[in-house]
Amino acid sequence: MLRSLNGIFAILSKEMIQMSRDRLTFAMILMIPVVQLVLFGYAINTDPKHLATAVHVEEQTPMVRSILTGMKNSDYFDFILTTGNGEETESLLRDGKVSFVLSIPAGFTKALIRGEQPQLLLEADASDPAAASNAMAQIRQIVLQALQPDLTGPLSYLAVSADPVDVVVHRAYNPEGITQYNIVPGLVGVILTMTMVMITSMAMTREVERGTMENLLAMPVKPYQVMFGKITPYIFVGIIQTFIILAAAHFLFRVPFAGSMSVLALGVSLFILANLALGFTFSTIARSQMQAMQLTIFFFLPSILLSGFMFPFRGMPIWAQWIGEALPLTHFLRIIRGVMLKDTPGMALLNEFAAIGLFMLVVGAIAMKRYRRTLD
Amino acid sequence: MREKALQQNLSDDLAIDVCDLVKDFGSKRAVDKVSIQMPRGQVWGFLGPNGSGKTTTIRMICGLLEPTSGYGNCLGLDIQKEADAIKKATGYMTQKFSFWEDMTIRENLAFVARLYQLHPIKQVVDETLKTLGLFDRQHQLAGHLSGGWKQRLALAAVTMHNPALLLLDEPTAGVDPQARRDFWDEIHRLAGSGMTVLVSTHYMDEAERCDRIVYLSHGKIMVQGRVQEIVKEVGLVTFKATGDGARERVEAFRRDDRVDYASYFGAALHISARDRQALQAAIGEFGDGLQWQEIETGLEDAFIALSQMQHMQSNTSGKG
């Protein structure tokens, strides 16, 4: 009995010594729960408020103002644009600039007073059903409540009758609110992030771990040659993965493909390159394959949580949105969801392409700088 | 002008010409002012205990490490500014096997041939495989080879581009005697074809196969020259004793200040010292009943004595 305890203790103490030698791994073990706590505890909010909303009103009356004020006070809607011109709001929803467009036509107030139950239209970007659902569920109640104070005196009969206003909610891009429409295209981004970063970072660290790096360094090959040579095979791996998921999206989940294949292809290529560059950078930091794996997980966690993949991006506090903006997955999700579900034109996604491109350049420059040409 | 040209010519005859190389790792000085002038076409041995700075020096010579200070040329190329050109003209065999174990012998060689832009690849690889007797095993995975064959693959890979300078870092560690002998025959064949070879080793018999040796200890060159010169320079007198109880006397001689070095090997007691009279006095005191015989000092004895003397020197200078 005692003898077997001795054996266990011997292994245990050896394990403790080795754990204390691998600082990066140890730091990760401590950091990952902290990061998860912060992200789940503070950043993630499944009831997103302050969603960007464009308002197209063709008349300004006290009652219209009451409705707008009521919506604003509900905290669900942030009016970023109020206009009398319908053309201005047309593309905002498609390009992902706003989550809602509210339209109040001319003659609305008169019709309301006459008891004609005029229509008030709220168009919602339902491509992410979770993000818009609460606001959509609440809008009728919000409007009716906002009108209550105005419906006094001769109008008080309206307050007790059937709805004085017909609130029409239009779920654009995903009328049935199917979650898969949002998740499956997003999976392309998530899977590419995981595999591309991990494969490259491990492929490079393997050379260091096995001692073959010294040999590579001693031979006439330049860092950029090593980088491109190492990365290129995995570009094809990433493209194959993309095809598999897109095929599944089409045949199994019946996700629509509304937009341009070539815009998506460009987005996927850029995104793959950015992740490969990041993997290469990780390989210049990690000393072992184990560390490379952990760095990948460390990057992967905020990527799925803060990019808008799992939880609504607009629901997060501003600081979390800023972190999200720094992650290539966030921008890639906007591209692939926009192209597949909303037929967002490439020009409207320029910012997203630019963000991924910038990420790639910065990370690539760090990799080139850190790549050791000597064994120092 | 003329003098400069002359100097240029002189250094052109040197494969390695480095001066005062220093390498610090943090606060530890691994290499301390090492200067080596090695002519082309020779085979030099690089000796010294583990951690004496052999590997670090070799890595600085072939551009894999940047010296903390010092300067020099390798094959007439600046070791700091022209590392790329040096890599093309040298072959460096690492101490630890560093080829790709999940690739076959042939795949490894073809990869190296491509990096050095050797054409036509198939022919170059075939020739190398045949010359080094690897042809029959060309499709075996490198990871499945035994020590001797791995080392032969490594030699094939680092010589395939016909480098002017070959740097071999303990190439025969862990290799059986027959394979070691074959390996050295190969080194001399390469040297015969004009290659310059610097090889680090722990084996004395290998040191004796070198034209000259450089002995490093604690990052400094302690001595260099031909084997016989070094043995003579150390100036040791050595006696060998056989008989009952020889083994038990080692400790007594070791404790004696008059004896520099005492050890038991080859079924005999060996003692050596620089001072013949003191040594004989010690034998007179502790050596009763043994058969004594003066022998030629071996290289190993000389080196061990050297490193001990170095140790004592650094101790006294440390105190003073």
| Class per helix and strand makeup of chain B | alpha/beta
Structural class of chain A: alpha/beta
Determine Rg of chain B (CA atoms, Å).
23 Å
Number of strands of chain A: 5
User: CATH topology of the largest domain in chain B, which one?
Assistant: Rossmann fold
Q: Report the major sheet of chain B.
A: 6 strands, mixed
Could you give the order of the helices and strands of chain B?
HEEEHEEHEHHHEHEHEEHEHEEHEH
Largest sheet of chain A, in brief, is:
5 strands, mixed
Average of pLDDT of chain A = 88
**Strand percent estimate of chain A:** 5-15%
Any low-confidence stretches of chain B, pLDDT <50, length ≥5? 1-10
Plain-language structure description:
The complex is a heterodimer of chains A (376) and B (320). A five-stranded mixed beta sheet of chain A has the order 2-1-3-4-5. Chain A folds into two domains: 51-172, abc type-2 transporter like fold; 178-370, no CATH class. In chain A, helix 3 (62-73) packs across helix 6 (129-147), helix 10 (223-251) packs across helix 11 (261-285) and helix 11 (261-285) runs antiparallel to helix 14 (328-342). The two termini of chain A are 49 Å apart. Chain A has 376 residues and is an alpha/beta fold. In chain A, helix 3 (62-73) links the parallel strand 1 and strand 2 (77-83). Chain A has 15 helices and five strands. Chain B has 320 residues and is of the alpha/beta class. In chain B, helix 4 crosses helix 5 (121-131), helix 4 runs parallel beside helix 6 and helix 9 crosses helix 12. In chain B, the strands form three sheets. Chain B has a six-stranded mixed beta sheet, sandwiched between helices. Chain B has a four-stranded antiparallel beta sheet with strand order 2-1-4-5. Chain B has a four-stranded antiparallel beta sheet with strand order 12-13-11-14. Chain B is built from twelve helices and 14 strands. Chain B folds into two domains: 39-67 and 82-225, 3-Layer(aba) Sandwich (Rossmann fold); 232-319, Malonyl-CoA ACP transacylase, ACP-binding (Alpha-Beta Plaits, 2-Layer Sandwich), CATH 3.30.70. In chain B, 40% of the residues are buried. In chain B, strand 12 (261-265) and strand 13 form a beta hairpin. Helix content of chain B is 40%, strand content 27%. The termini of chain B are far apart. Chains A and B meet through helix 9 of A and helix 3 of B. Chain A: It is found in: Cell membrane. Chain A: It comes from Thiomicrorhabdus heinhorstiae. Chain A: Keywords: Cell membrane, Membrane, Transmembrane, Transmembrane helix, Transport. Chain A: InterPro entries: ABC-2_transporter_component, ABC2_TM, ABC2_TM_bact-type. Chain A: Its main location: membrane.
